[in-house]
Design brief:
Layout: H1 2-31, H2 39-81, H3 96-206, H4 210-220, H5 243-256, E1 263-268, E2 273-278, H6 280-287, E3 291-293, E4 315-317
Antiparallel strand pairs: 1-2, 3-4
Helix pairs in contact: 1-3, 2-3, 3-4, 3-5
């Protein structure tokens, strides 16, 4: 009874513990997916999506306002340059009264032009002010969209890296756990066979009937089945589907901009045009200036289109 309730029970309990350990090890692999789409990244995605929409909408509005400003400018220029209706008289031979009448006529026409030009100038000023205000706001919105996109790209890259490291580590730990548990299972099976045989012999010694005793003794030589102590290796969890994250990363990466290692460009001077291959290091070495992105990050190379730092695409002077 003691063997059955202590030793054999311990074998059974240890087997259950091994099964639980393996399931836990498998769960740890699956839990690595929690490193993906964290609240911070989800919030950034929402912000970037909202800013993208706002940037697209304001770009359309700015385009419409630019067209309105251009129309107002053309109308103003046309009015300023249009003097064909102002008559030109040779006042010789006219009487004083006739001269006065002609001058009044001219004055009236000029005053009409002044009124028209003043009105068109006001419309142009209003159109320009409206355009300038919205263009500035739109530039700020677009800039914020780009900076938030770069932040989102960094967050996604970090998440994917952390997830990959986590899964790799937990897979190795699980394989190590499986090796240890299979060794423990082999020892348990031997213990189970030994305990079962000891119980069998104890039952033989406890039996008083000689015939029954012999029957029991015959069974003691048979190996006890240990199939119920077999361990089944849990299936490896499938890798998390990162397609959506990869897609978002590529989208925001396109917004941030990808620059080639070196770019062949044409630099125009006052007397000649030359084609040169310019990298960031070459430019900084020759100009003594440091160029960086608006977020202060340096990139390997830039597209040069004249001037100093302002001539480097999407750059500001640091």
């Amino acid at each position: 009874d003691e063997i059955e309730h202590t030793s054999l029970k311990k074998v059974s309990d240890d087997h259950a513990a091994s099964v639980a350990n393996l399931q836990h090890g498998r769960q740890l692999i699956e839990d690595c997916s929690q490193e993906l789409s964290t609240p911070n990244t989800v919030n950034l995605q929402t912000q970037v999506s909202s800013l993208k929409t706002a940037a697209a909408e304001c770009e359309i509005k700015v385009g419409e306002l630019l067209s309105k400003k251009s129309v107002a400018s053309v109308s103003l220029d046309t009015a300023i340059n249009s003097t064909d209706d102002i008559p030109c008289y040779d006042l010789k031979g006219f009487t004083a009264v006739e001269v006065s009448a002609k001058l009044s006529q001219i004055r009236s026409i000029v005053q009409g032009h002044e009124t028209t030009i003043s009105d068109l100038k006001g419309k142009y000023d209003d159109a320009k002010a409206d355009y300038d205000s919205n263009e500035t706001q739109c530039a700020n919105t677009t800039g914020l969209w780009k900076s938030e996109s770069c932040m989102l790209e960094g967050a996604i890259v970090t998440e994917l890296g952390v997830y990959s490291d986590c899964r790799s580590k937990k897979l190795k730990e699980f394989e190590h756990l499986w090796g240890n548990e299979t060794k423990r299972a082999a020892v348990r099976k031997k213990d189970y066979v030994a305990y079962t045989k000891i119980m069998c012999y104890i039952n033989v010694l406890s039996e008083t009937d000689a015939e029954q005793q012999q029957k029991l003794l015959n069974t003691c030589g048979q190996a006890a089945s240990t199939d119920h102590l077999d361990l089944v290796k849990p299936s490896t969890p499938a890798a998390a589907d990162t397609t959506q994250l990869e897609s978002v990363k590529q989208e925001v990466q396109d917004v941030c901009g990808v620059v080639v290692a070196a770019t062949t460009v044409t630099k125009t001077t006052t007397d000649q045009a030359t084609t040169v291959t310019t990298t960031e290091e070459e430019y900084e070495a020759t100009s003594g200036k440091t160029c960086a992105t608006s977020s202060g990050e340096r990139i390997e190379a830039y597209t040069y289109d004249g001037g100093d730092c302002d001539g480097w695409a999407s750059l500001t002077e640091e």
